[in-house]
Amino acid sequence: ELIDKLVDESKFTIPRILIDEVADENFHNMLHYVKLPHISMKEYAEKIGMSYEEVRKGFENRAEKMIKEWVVFFKISEEEKLQVNEEDLQNWANEESNYGVQATDLL
Questions:
Q1: What Rg, from alpha-carbon coordinates, does the chain have?
Q2: pTM score, whole prediction
Q3: How many angstroms separate the Cα of 47 from the Cα of each of 8, 31, 51?
Q4: Cβ–Cβ < 8 Å for 105, 51
Q5: How far apart are CA 40 and CA 7, in angstroms?
Q6: What whole-number distance in Å separates Cα of residue 31 and Cα of residue 37?
Q7: What span, in angstroms and rounded, lies between the C-alpha atoms of 42 and 68?
Q8: What is the pLDDT of residues 24-73, one digit of tens each?
Q9: Alpha helices (runs of H) in the chain, residue ranges in sequence order
Q10: Inter-residue contact 60 to 20 (CB < 8 Å)
Protein backbone atom coordinates (compact mmCIF):
# COMPACT_ATOMS: atom_id res chain seq x y z
CA GLU A 1 0.00 0.00 0.00
CA LEU A 2 2.79 2.42 0.80
CA ILE A 3 4.44 1.84 -2.56
CA ASP A 4 1.08 2.30 -4.31
CA LYS A 5 0.60 5.60 -2.49
CA LEU A 6 4.10 6.79 -3.41
CA VAL A 7 3.55 5.77 -7.05
CA ASP A 8 0.15 7.47 -7.18
CA GLU A 9 1.62 10.68 -5.76
CA SER A 10 4.69 10.66 -7.99
CA LYS A 11 4.97 13.57 -10.39
CA PHE A 12 7.79 12.48 -12.69
CA THR A 13 7.27 11.93 -16.40
CA ILE A 14 8.22 8.69 -18.08
CA PRO A 15 9.36 8.83 -21.70
CA ARG A 16 6.70 7.41 -24.07
CA ILE A 17 9.28 5.15 -25.73
CA LEU A 18 10.02 3.45 -22.40
CA ILE A 19 6.32 2.89 -21.68
CA ASP A 20 5.87 1.42 -25.17
CA GLU A 21 8.88 -0.84 -24.76
CA VAL A 22 7.75 -2.20 -21.38
CA ALA A 23 4.14 -2.59 -22.58
CA ASP A 24 5.33 -4.63 -25.59
CA GLU A 25 7.62 -6.73 -23.42
CA ASN A 26 4.81 -7.39 -20.93
CA PHE A 27 2.50 -8.44 -23.76
CA HIS A 28 5.05 -10.89 -25.16
CA ASN A 29 5.81 -12.24 -21.68
CA MET A 30 2.10 -12.80 -21.11
CA LEU A 31 1.86 -14.80 -24.35
CA HIS A 32 4.85 -16.87 -23.30
CA TYR A 33 3.63 -17.59 -19.75
CA VAL A 34 0.14 -18.62 -20.81
CA LYS A 35 1.67 -20.60 -23.68
CA LEU A 36 -0.19 -18.79 -26.45
CA PRO A 37 1.26 -18.73 -29.94
CA HIS A 38 3.09 -15.57 -30.94
CA ILE A 39 0.43 -13.20 -32.24
CA SER A 40 0.25 -9.44 -32.50
CA MET A 41 -1.52 -7.35 -29.91
CA LYS A 42 -4.10 -6.48 -32.55
CA GLU A 43 -4.80 -10.18 -33.21
CA TYR A 44 -4.98 -10.82 -29.47
CA ALA A 45 -7.50 -7.99 -29.05
CA GLU A 46 -9.69 -9.48 -31.79
CA LYS A 47 -9.53 -12.95 -30.17
CA ILE A 48 -10.68 -11.63 -26.79
CA GLY A 49 -13.34 -9.33 -28.23
CA MET A 50 -11.76 -6.03 -27.30
CA SER A 51 -10.52 -3.16 -29.38
CA TYR A 52 -6.80 -2.84 -30.00
CA GLU A 53 -6.90 0.56 -28.30
CA GLU A 54 -8.40 -0.93 -25.11
CA VAL A 55 -5.84 -3.72 -24.96
CA ARG A 56 -2.95 -1.38 -25.77
CA LYS A 57 -4.06 1.14 -23.14
CA GLY A 58 -4.26 -1.62 -20.52
CA PHE A 59 -0.72 -2.75 -21.22
CA GLU A 60 0.53 0.85 -21.30
CA ASN A 61 -1.12 1.67 -17.96
CA ARG A 62 0.43 -1.40 -16.35
CA ALA A 63 3.82 -0.58 -17.87
CA GLU A 64 3.72 2.98 -16.55
CA LYS A 65 2.84 1.75 -13.06
CA MET A 66 5.65 -0.83 -13.17
CA ILE A 67 8.21 1.76 -14.22
CA LYS A 68 7.12 4.13 -11.46
CA GLU A 69 7.35 1.27 -8.94
CA TRP A 70 10.89 0.52 -10.14
CA VAL A 71 11.87 4.16 -9.72
CA VAL A 72 10.32 4.34 -6.25
CA PHE A 73 12.06 1.12 -5.17
CA PHE A 74 15.35 2.38 -6.59
CA LYS A 75 15.07 5.71 -4.77
CA ILE A 76 14.17 4.00 -1.48
CA SER A 77 17.06 1.56 -1.80
CA GLU A 78 19.40 4.44 -2.66
CA GLU A 79 18.24 6.56 0.29
CA GLU A 80 18.37 3.63 2.73
CA LYS A 81 21.64 2.33 1.26
CA LEU A 82 20.09 -1.10 0.72
CA GLN A 83 22.12 -3.65 -1.19
CA VAL A 84 21.34 -7.06 -2.60
CA ASN A 85 24.04 -9.69 -2.44
CA GLU A 86 24.51 -12.82 -4.57
CA GLU A 87 22.82 -15.05 -1.96
CA ASP A 88 19.74 -12.77 -1.89
CA LEU A 89 19.51 -12.93 -5.69
CA GLN A 90 19.86 -16.71 -5.74
CA ASN A 91 17.19 -17.12 -3.04
CA TRP A 92 14.81 -14.88 -4.99
CA ALA A 93 15.44 -16.77 -8.23
CA ASN A 94 14.87 -20.11 -6.50
CA GLU A 95 11.63 -18.85 -4.98
CA GLU A 96 10.41 -17.61 -8.36
CA SER A 97 11.25 -20.99 -9.90
CA ASN A 98 8.47 -22.42 -7.74
CA TYR A 99 6.08 -20.54 -10.04
CA GLY A 100 7.30 -22.19 -13.22
CA VAL A 101 10.04 -19.72 -14.07
CA GLN A 102 13.54 -21.14 -14.46
CA ALA A 103 15.99 -19.63 -11.98
CA THR A 104 18.61 -19.42 -14.73
CA ASP A 105 16.24 -17.25 -16.80
CA LEU A 106 16.08 -14.72 -13.97
CA LEU A 107 19.79 -14.33 -13.29
A1: 17
A2: 0.74
A3: 32, 13, 10
A4: no
A5: 30
A6: 7
A7: 26
A8: 999 999 998 888 889 999 999 999 999 999 999 999 999 999 999 999 88
A9: 2-9, 16-33, 41-48, 52-79, 86-97, 103-106
A10: yes
